[in-house]
Every structure is written in C-alpha cells, then in structure tokens.
Amino acid sequence: MSTTPLPLFYRQPRPLHPSRHGNRSLAARPDYRFAAGTNAVPLIAAELPVACRHYPIVFTAGDQPYPVAVLGLRGKQNLFVDEAGNWKADAYVPAYVRRYPFILMENEGATEFTLCVDETAGAFMEGRDNPFFDADGKPTDIARNALAFCGDYQKQHTLTAEFAQALTSAGLLVDNRADVALRNGEKLSLSGFRVIDEARFAKLSDKEFKRWRTKGWLPLVYAHLISVGTWTTLIDRLGPPDHPAA
User: Fold this and answer.
1) Which of 24, 47, 140, 184 is least enclosed, having the fewest CB within 10 Å?
2) Dihedral (CA of 224, 234, 41, 53) sign
3) Residue 163 within any structural domain of the chain
4) pLDDT tens figures, 53-65
5) Residue 42 forms part of a structural domain
C-alpha cells in the first residue's frame, strides 16, 4: 500500500465511476469551509498574474519548491473564508481550491491519470439533484467539466514545477520571513518560505534572460515581486479587534 501523503484537503479520493457514484451529486453551491483551516494553498503559473493582486505569493522550502498564496497570518487561519463557507467576494479564488473535490490521480505505474472525487467532501452528496452521471451511466457536464479542469490544472502544475525548479537552479530563491505588528501590540512572525531575490534576478545574463522570456517565466517573476505589496491586505483583513497597523 502506498504511503504517499494525500494532497491538501483530500482524505478519501476515489475514481469517479457510475457503478459507485451513479446516485451521487455535486452540491449546487460552493462551500469553502474545507479550506478555512489552511493559511496557504498552491498556485499554478497561469494564475500568478491575477493572484498577485490579492495574495502574497511565496515559495515552499525544500528540494522541489512551489508557489503558494498566503491566506492568513496565523497557522490554520484563512482570512478569505467566512463562517457560512463563502470566499470573500472581492478576492480571487485559487484554482487549487476551485478544483476540489475533484483531482487527477496517477496509477501505481504512473502511466495514466484517473479523475477522482473526494468522497468525504461536503460537496459530495447523496441523490441526483446535480448528478455526475445520467440515467445511462454517461458523464454529465459536471463530470466532463471536472475532467477538463483537472486536465488543464495538471498541465499547468507541470509547467509551474519547471519554473520553480529553474528558480532553484539559478540560485534565485532565498529564505525569508514576514514580521507583522498588530494594532493591539501583538507581533506575528511567518517563516519557512522562500522568495525571489530581486538583486540576483537582475544579474541574470542576457542569454539567460532571453531564455526566461521565451519560456514565459518573466511575468511569473514579476507577479511574485508585485505580490509583496499585498501583505498589508492580509493585515487589513484581520479586522477589529486585532486590526494591525499598516
């Protein structure tokens, strides 16, 4: 049995199949309470230029760094999900969050992917109000759209990993921390993440810079650098009574 940990949010993903899920449906209304207890989620390359206007973008530590959106200033805190499960209307919802409860999972030989659904998800429901399959067992738009979305996500995940690995190879990622002072005098500190060293990036050779431009990586670097200004957005979202100073 594989001991590989499951991705964030997923607890019991199973292949979507009419024999198992013929009388199951997807909740009509998104409920993001499943994400309320996390302060960061992965981002894919295509969404960095949009996400940078709403969240600080940082990179995970380790041998295989990956960009993530910072959602809160404390552990297990998401400042963008309210008690009713709504995502803040003025904020972009990351694709990783919108993908749930669906996901593409590799088989043991890593030769193919299968569309799966997390059977523990609140959006996974009994009945046929919004079914995955029609009466003949054929996929409905719900299942087809989920497959297309997850397929596009997987392609972007691969491209994003390539970009992050290029940052590592070029020595552009450095350890960083964020220190925040709240208006009530409390001080918070976030660490364990990396950022792009802008000075090192500026020293890329002309040849390497052109290669990055051809790869489409330059807008991703700039999006990350722009996102630094959104730390104050997180501070503002804490609100009273723990509303910190800018």
Assistant:
1) 184
2) negative
3) yes
4) 999 999 999 889 9
5) yes
